[in-house]
Amino acid sequence: MFGTAPPGTARLTLDDRPVRLAGDGRFVIGFGRDAVAGEVRAELNDGREVVRTIAVRPRAWNIESIPGLRRPSGGPSPEYEAIRAPELARIAAARAGSTNETGWTQAFAWPAKGRISGVYGSQRILGGVPGSPHAGLDIAAPSGSPVLSPADGVVRLANDRMSLEGNLVMVDHGFGLTSSFLHLSRNDVVVGERVTRGQQIGAIGTTGRSTGPHLHWALSWGDVKVDPGLLVGAPTAPEPWDMPASERVHG
Predict the structure, then answer these.
(1) Which of 55, 78, 97 is the last residue of a domain?
(2) Where would I find the H helices in the chain?
(3) Where is the M23ase beta-sheet core domain (predicted)?
(4) 142 and 199 in one domain?
(5) SS (H, E, C) 183-239
(6) Residue 57 burial (CB < 10 Å; 0-12/13-18/19+)?
(7) Phi-psi category of residue 121: left, alpha or beta, with phi > 0 → left and psi -120 to 50 → alpha
């Protein structure tokens, strides 16, 4: 959600979480999949407070229930946990903080052309046990297809071998809003590099935990995963490139 604080606002919070303000009072906040409402509080220079409760409009999520199929028993192996823990720490560190980048004020563009093969918020229930909701938008396209930055920003992470994400690029658009691009066949940027809207940052691939070439685009406000499709008008996708039938199925 994008908004403008009342004139004279000295401090803004969402459910007691500080919200960064631009010089003209503009701000961005994000709500997760299961959020119902949030309280935005503006503390003014003259001591007054303005409080607004923001209701989150309910959405119909794509839920698939398969009663006869069960998830594998047992959790991740100690070997996997030893690898995964430092990866998650690096991702959290890259996403932490709030910078003055202004890409968040732009109209976001599609990061790739292709078929939308996975939507934010979808979920599978196997044998009555809910899986984790899908936290991004999947775009299927041939390996090597360009991946573009949807808005200006600075590269916070460019890792070529994450166990789950594969080749990963994270772009900070400012004020806590970051884009992550997963499963890339290659990264074309380095940490600290400034990128512009429409600049190529990598190429679609199937690295990490993936069963076919696609881009997984995740958008976060701080540690809150939000729907990137809301910024580009999903589910209406750009016209896809011609795609061989062998590359149309992926996970």
Answers:
(1) 55
(2) 78-95, 229-232
(3) 133-228
(4) yes
(5) EECEECCCCCCEECCCCEEEECECCCCCCCCEEEEEEEECCEEECCHHHHCCCCCCC
(6) exposed
(7) left
Please write the tens of the pLDDT for every residue from 58-94.
998 888 887 766 766 667 788 889 999 999 999 999 9
Whether 250 contacts 211, CB under 8 Å: yes
For residue 185, which of 148, 215, 164, 211 has the smallest C-alpha distance?
215
Segments forming the whole domain that contains residue 131: 63-247
Output the domain CATH number for residue 200. 2.70.70.10
Same domain? 19 vs 83: no
Higher pLDDT, 186 or 240: 186
Q: State both tokens at 204.
A: 């679609």
- Based on the fold, state whether residues 118 and 18 are members of the same structural domain: no
Residues 225 and 170 in one domain: yes
List pLDDT tens digits, range 8-45.
999 999 999 999 999 999 999 999 999 999 999 999 99
C-alpha span between 126 and 91 (Å, rounded)? 29
